[in-house]
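Exercise 7.
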Amino acid sequence: MAELLDIYDENGKYLGVEDRNVVHQKGLWHKTIHCWIVKDGDKIVFQKRGSHLDDNPAKLYTTASGHLKAGESLEDAFKRETAEELGIQIENPQRLLEVVYKADFITKSNKEFHDRVFCNMYFAKCDIPLSSYRVQEEELDGVVEMKIRDVIDLFDGKVETIKGAGYLVENGAFKMKDLDLTMDDFLTVPPETCKSKYGYVLDAILEKL
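Solution. The predicted structure, written as tokens, is:
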């Protein structure tokens, strides 16, 4: 069954509905949700992408993210994505900002891919332990928490390593693990968007706390 997305013009005016594959073939504007979870008042949770994935394997990325389905609100998309990818129930996510993203590239299967996205950043507070997450194993190797200010310092180049704690799969089972993290652990491609996706949005989260 086709996955339908709402489409827009470059100014955000609603145009209608289109198949997701067509959206990326033609470079039609659409919306995504980037979900961030704040834990214990000063920590941020990243997902660790599956080590088996073709696209950026084993890299740390937003807590959860995905496309908005046709007719879906941003708040409902946040709740759905965090439930699907992390197995947690979230209420009352808060809006942070919107980032406009454009990309054109050739996929590994030699197909043209055109991305025209209004990326909507939202966050919510959730203090449950990482071991209570029910991670979508088909896509993720687990979740990792670290202090927000430490991450900002890392992306600003003030430090080269920060501490984190992960609930990660190892030999077929999930367990907690202490981590030393560097920039190489994070999905930062293309590099020029790194500050927008991470440092900038974390600054916005701190302003809301």
